[in-house]
Amino acid sequence: MKKVLRVFYSDHYTLPLPEGHRFPMEKYGMLRDLLLTQEILKPHHLQESPLALPETLSLAHDPQYIQKMKEGTIENSILQRIGFPWSPGLFYRSCATVGGALGAALSALENGFSGNLAGGTHHAHFDRGEGYCVFNDIAVATKYLLKNGFKKRIAIIDLDVHQGNGNSSILSEDPRVFLLSLHGEKNYPFKKVPSTLDIGLPDGAGDEEFLSALGQALPRVMDFNPDFIFYQMGVDPLKEDVLGKLNMTFEGLKERDRKVLELAARQNIPVSLALGGGYAKPIDLSVRAYANTYGVAREIFTDLDWS
């Protein structure tokens, strides 16, 4: 019998953004629709993300910060760093993002592979958010797995074009966590927080440079002997991405995904996906790249029931 496939979504939580806001909130619903249209996923694979509770969020965040975000009393200076106006929807959507990461992690533990059609909010720190990130889904899920004894050594493979400064500020002192960040050296955040292994690429780097750097980094990750992998599959290295500054193609991104996911499958390490960034114009290109990652996963994790 094939294993159960579950993928979590939270695109029904929406934010009232001002007209002209540059964050492409519509991409989440577009991705879910495209995965179904292309029959990469079927409706029964999709599960609504639960809301993470404040006590769960507090595994990686200051309880006062969580409470202020819930009540709408958060300082304007922090909201400006986050980049979203406060609304009840911002809090609940952010809780669902973390809940989806937790659900996907637990499903991956059971079945080897899962994903969250949101998340990768790797710029959120212990006591503040920034860069369109309110709560850090991967950091919370990592702390949850370790605290509850599900796993002992966790690797975060972060291939978003922006360095995961929040992941590093929360998790870098924990010897049970290996943080790989492969990113644009001159891109946001301009003050990097050191990861276990940081690889900065120059502006304009394309498939060859990225894949070569990844090929050198992955053996370092495996030397750590992780028993769980969070994969931040940001597609903002795509050359059409307006915030990316790199020059990767769709095929290059698919090869990137293949290297990571084949390694996890070959070593029998459970892996959970988080979307990360994607800001192409038109946004359909980012959505296509996200869907391609799940297409690659379908080719690799053949013991799952994709039908």
Describe what this molecule looks like in 3D.
The chain has 307 residues and is of the alpha/beta class. 40% of the residues lie in helices and 12% in strands. It has helices spanning 27-37, 54-57, 63-71, 76-82, 88-111, 137-147, 165-171, 207-223, 250-266, 284-300; strands spanning 7-9, 46-48, 113-116, 154-158, 177-184, 197-201, 228-232, 271-274. Helix 1 (27-37) links the parallel strand 1 and strand 2. Helix 1 packs across helix 10 (284-300), helix 8 (207-223) runs parallel beside helix 9 (250-266) and helix 9 packs parallel to helix 10. The model has no long low-confidence stretch (mean pLDDT 97).
Write the layout of secondary structure elements.
Blueprint: E1 7-9, H1 27-37, E2 46-48, H2 54-57, H3 63-71, H4 76-82, H5 88-111, E3 113-116, H6 137-147, E4 154-158, H7 165-171, E5 177-184, E6 197-201, H8 207-223, E7 228-232, H9 250-266, E8 271-274, H10 284-300
Parallel strand pairs: 1-2, 1-3, 3-8, 4-5, 4-7, 5-6, 7-8
Number of helices: 10
What structural class is derived from the secondary structure elements? alpha/beta
For the secondary structure, the number of strands is 8
Strand proportion: 5-15%
CATH architectural label: 3-Layer(aba) Sandwich
Mean pLDDT: 97
The run of helices and strands is: EHEHHHHEHEHEEHEHEH
Count up the domains.
1
CATH topology: Arginase, Chain A
CATH class: Alpha Beta
Spatial ordering of strands, largest sheet: 2-1-3-8-7-4-5-6
The biggest sheet amounts to: 8 strands, parallel
